[in-house]
Specification:
single chain; 310 residues; alpha+beta; Aminopeptidase; 2 domains; 13-stranded mixed sheet; 9 helices; 13 strands; 32% strand
């Protein structure tokens, strides 16, 4: 992109409640199946006069809107961002504008205390990959999205090789230490390890869907914490989500991960859920094998792109 063309484009922050043209352009990046719920959430936020969690940026050329980009700050010092959407720009201009939009977006999110920005893209979309790279992102992993339908749920409570405690009696610091141990030598998105404090990661886990303390379990074996199951509910579509399952290194290979997964399916049956869903790193073959044994099947695959702001 030549200097003259670049000098005619300006980047500015917009008010999502007022700049409807910019919001409509940027929001076209939302997956079609999510648009209705996201628009409803934005309307409710405006009506309630809540502090917005959305950052909306727009690029103009001679007062003409040519691009817009959205990010959403989330609990746990993280944010999700969608690819910029364009109007009337060629491919080279799109790459340059993407770098400018994300440069300002980084500053906006740093000011909000965000430490990690993430985005999901189709694995086979080279153009999306080019735009992510232009925005300063790196590819962290491919995620497999798995589901187990109700017919896969165990008919009775599974026999467990360990005792479990629900979240209530478990101190936050104890859970943080346990999760830190389960991250050691992890095969699940190791590129993201250490990019956020574990306390912030747990806050992010808790904010997915609906947190219910009895669905968060710590596994104890011979008086030691050896693993955890963190599962949240999604009552709007009657399913549950395994947010995280982790086993400490010295307890791996004993079937504890499978036992916790079957426990999750049993808890879902007890709640009357139709299915349990989860996401797992496509390179984490041991975990994929565990989930397949428990009855999970793949329904989607996405590439995770990340950018650290620390």
């Amino acid at each position: 992109m030549n200097a003259r063309a670049a000098s005619s484009i300006t980047i500015s922050r917009c008010d999502p409640a007022q700049d409807k043209l910019a919001l409509a352009l940027a929001a076209s990046a939302w997956p079609e199946e999510e648009r209705s719920s996201r628009w409803q959430a934005r309307r409710e936020q405006v009506q309630a006069q809540q502090a917005p969690d959305i950052v909306l940026l727009a690029a103009h050329r001679d007062d003409q809107l040519v691009a817009a980009s959205l990010a959403q700050a989330l609990p746990g010092r993280t944010a999700v961002t969608w690819l910029p959407q364009f109007s009337g720009l060629d491919e080279s201009e799109q790459l340059w504008v993407t770098s400018q939009l994300h440069g300002q977006l980084r500053q906006e999110l740093i000011a909000r205390g965000v430490h990690l920005v993430q985005g999901l893209e189709p694995c086979d979309n080279s153009r999306a990959a080019d735009l992510r790279k232009a925005g300063g992102f790196s590819h962290a992993a491919d995620l497999l999205y798995l589901t187990a339908e109700a017919e896969c749920f165990p008919p009775a409570a599974p026999a467990l090789p360990f005792a479990t405690e629900s979240y209530g009696p478990v101190a936050a610091e104890r859970l943080r230490r346990l999760i830190d141990r389960t991250y050691e030598q992890t095969l699940d998105c190791p590129q993201m390890d250490g990019l956020r404090d574990t306390g912030d990661v747990i806050a992010g886990y808790r904010a997915i869907g609906e947190f219910r303390p009895h669905l968060w379990r710590v596994a104890r074996y011979r008086e030691s914490d050896v693993g955890c199951l963190l599962m949240n509910a999604h009552s709007d579509n009657n399913h549950a989500e395994i947010v995280y399952v982790g086993i400490v290194p010295e307890a791996r290979g004993r079937g504890f991960g499978l036992a916790l997964t079957r426990l999750a399916l049993w808890l879902a049956r007890e709640m009357g859920c139709e299915r349990v869903v989860l996401a797992v790193d496509a390179a984490n073959n041991p975990a994929i094998g565990i989930y397949a044994t428990a009855g999970f099947c793949q329904w989607d695959r996405k590439a995770v792109w990340i950018q650290s702001l620390r």
